[in-house]
Amino acid sequence: MVDALTLTKRKKMDPRTMQLYYVLLALSLVMCIVSFWKLEVWDGGLALIIMALIIGTMKFDRHVIHIPPMILVFAVTGLILSTLGQIVGNEHSFFLAASYAFLGIILSLMGYVLAYVIVGKLPGEADEKAGLLSLEAFCFGVAIYSLATMVAFYCSTLDSMPNYREMFDNLLFVTVGSAIICLFFMLDRTTVFRHTVFNFLYVNSEALGIDVESERRKVLTIISGGETDHTEFKSTLRTNLETGEKDKRMEKAVLKTLVAFLNTDGGTLLIGVDDSGSITGIDESSFDSRDRMNLHMTHLISNQIGDEYNPYINFKVIPFDDDRAVMMVTCKKSPIPVFFKDGKNEIYYVRSGPSSVELTGSNMIKYIATNRQRLGGRKAPVPPPARAEDD
Question: Rounded to an integer, what distance in angstroms lies between the CA atom of residue 152 and that of residue 61?
Fold first, then answer.
């Protein structure tokens, strides 16, 4: 998915992330050697730039600026496709077409970053216009490539000048790539964008001049209203504050609240806030990095609620002073019933005042039947076996 008052202290990088960087660095080095061997100076120079970014991220991550691992994966993938296209040597090869489409995706992702920076807001604002942001990102991606092509064309000699058909074919592939990622943004912002654009913006918000104070004020406003049928506070994501150990019951308490919000009228869960409304900070120290914490939250939602409900759930980490942070999870009302997957059992929760309650048997059937309009004409799922709440 950086603080305006104080920068978040750098934590030791996750060993698996460091291993990923080493793999990406090795791949980039191989592509660099192959490109210069094939006398492809542009690809070789690009490989050197990507290698420098990877090395800089490994040494100075969060000290200067944070580049999410997924962005570097995208960059190296595009480089590999381009190099393979040069090796094949066919101007109409699949690899060259894919590399230019990938270039369009990367340029449009940069366009989204620029669009958010221009408006000075982080992703998730209530007045966010997805269509307008997508149009800006699409135009940015196509325009930047067109400008680069124009410069390369006029700087080329007569012998090395590309033909018009090749130029427009490449422009077409870039346009297709830009259009695909923009369409993806309109349909689903919970996968690719959470680990690329959104991650980059949240962590580097201060360096980019994005106002984080509005996010803090939003959290404080929610806290001032106390816990209601649309608001709940949790002190921790997975750490039992009494024992200091990881506890699955803490995760279950979080997930059942989200399921209850989805099944009722939506709501907001603040993780890192105790029952009295004091900001204690989410248990970020139990993770290797904030990226790992966000990834853990994503996996919890996918595995125990379901990927199909990702469009109705959005979460982001909002930094406060003293290295404290609050995870704000917002849920929209789901058009179909949602169940919490607890092993082989599936449990149905709804909101009742400031609490999440389990419904089973006839009570669940009556509730779903009463709210049948939320099903959008679809049949209600078979109710799970009744199960007593254990926490």
Answer: 33
